[in-house]
Fold:
Amino acid sequence: MRLLRIAVANVNSTVGACRSNGERVVSIAKAAAHDGASLVAFPEQVIGGYPQEDLVQWRAFISAQRAELEQVAAETADLGAALSVGVTIARGSHLYNCAALVHAGRIWGLVPKEKLPLYNVFYEARTFARGHAGLLDNVQNVPFGDLIFELDFGNVALEVCEDIWSPDGPMRRRCYAGAEVVVNLSASPFRLGVAETRREMLATRAGDNQATVVYANLVGANDGLIFDGGGYVSQCGRVLLDAPRFREGFTAINVDLDRGKRLRHENTTWRTDQESFVAISPRVHNIKVDAPTRSRQGLVYPAPPHKSFFLPMADDAGSSKRNFCEDILDALALGVGDYFEKTGAFKTIGVALSGGRDSLLVLIIARRFIETRYAHLNVAARKAKATEVLRAFFMPTRYSSSETHKAAEVAARDLDVPFAVVSIDDAFERELTQIEGMLQPSESITAMTRQNVQARLRAERMWSWSNSAGGLFLQTSNMSEKAVGYATIGGDTEGALSVIANLPKTVVNYLLDYLLETTGWEGIALTLKKPASAELADNQEDERDLMPFPVLDACFALFAGEKMSEPEVYEALVSMFSEYEAEQLHAWVKKFIRLFVQSIYKWVQAPISLHVGNLDLERERALQLPVVQKAEWAAGS
Structure:
């Protein structure tokens, strides 16, 4: 046996906070070494934070990262553990997203990322240069390039995030060159279902390369990106460690490296492929790390916890509904909490609680942040913290119903949130009078104006509260309404952070159903009793104004997600929604596309939103559509 204890470290780093991030690395490294780890894997860009975007144009920021990397090396010199650390490195006129190997007070090498994503929420190819096969250079007396590190326990290769998502990444090249352990440093944002995808992909890469693959992911949120942490150790296709997500810290496991060596010898196909590959591939450069790591005496063989090599372990994966809902709620609570704490600009968090579904879900998410952040406190102390930090405001007009008033009041009580009723009806009347004075004789106040005035008054009140109380004003519109412009510029599109702007209405309803099942809160039950309504006019219902939300969300997924034409969307809907007349479905498709295209100018003005899926509406990070366009092309030929 050749046993090695490997630690997967998750760090909640903040962009630009190089010293603070470095201190977190050192603290976790010390704890992992104390636990017996000889190899500790940290995430991508853990020193400078991720995403750094155009902050990398300040060379002082790059220099600060290099200085902090050296500080981390100095402060972990006596741990006896090798650390893989993510950092941005300058080489000539280029910048690189690198993995550094740090051990015994020294930086032994820098390995640049080769696959730079330029899709979805990623813009790395805009600012970073790529590493490539066979690259070898020296940057400030440190080897830089396509490297393998020879440590006393075995050969280690480093790579960064996207490198592992490509089957043609550097892993194969380095494993054929002798790497036994491949450490992937990642900053992979949360997306629905991504945990299962990552796990399967990591196991596949480990199996293909007959290697021990270590994957460490960033945790925490920066701007609208949420990183769920977690990580894996997978040996030759077998997942040995699945680290907890949504928390900072480390998880460790013992691995027998001789198993990988044995399987490479037994696998004749792997050996044949390796011989063919190395005959024609660029050379990978070996770095001899001549400082010993900690003693591995006392490590025990990683036997299955249930003491059987043949029987499966009990699987408590839980229901798919629970996993789906808990993942979303955990991610959004982390996004709200990190935005609130990392910006340093806020003392409280406020929600305009309407008695409707969207604002209720946002308040629940904010309350969940309190529960998570202060989990170390007792129940009474967490309730007191919620009362200290959170605020809910009900701002009725003549169109607000007693049912929504009661739903909002009870929900706030369920969540231990101070609740204030601040009518805007008098202000609404005065505003209509002032607007009439601005109109020409042939002009009159429209029904739409009457609705929008109410929304704008509420937003103005919330901003004024924010200024006075140091409050983080959370915007509460969902993705379905955002997609078709069913929101008011200067009104319910306002806020400092858009919490559920990338959740379709059907998902909002699904989450509330789940929360009602699991909590029994009366406020949720009262909210769900009444059909969804903006309550800006008499007898208003959202689905009557638009279309059934399942149909609307299907239109969004097919048109914006699958990039289908109008006839294709209609054909798909006919097969999905047999309960509706074909003519009605066709009308809804045409209405959706018209509203979607006409509303782009609205949603590009919305605040930063939290990303939880592969499709959302934020022009800077997701769906980059021209504001000025005509959808004539969508009708098909």
User: Anything to note?
Assistant: Residues 255 and 552 are 50 Å apart (CA to CA). Residues 320-539 form a domain with the Rossmann fold fold (CATH 3.40.50.620).
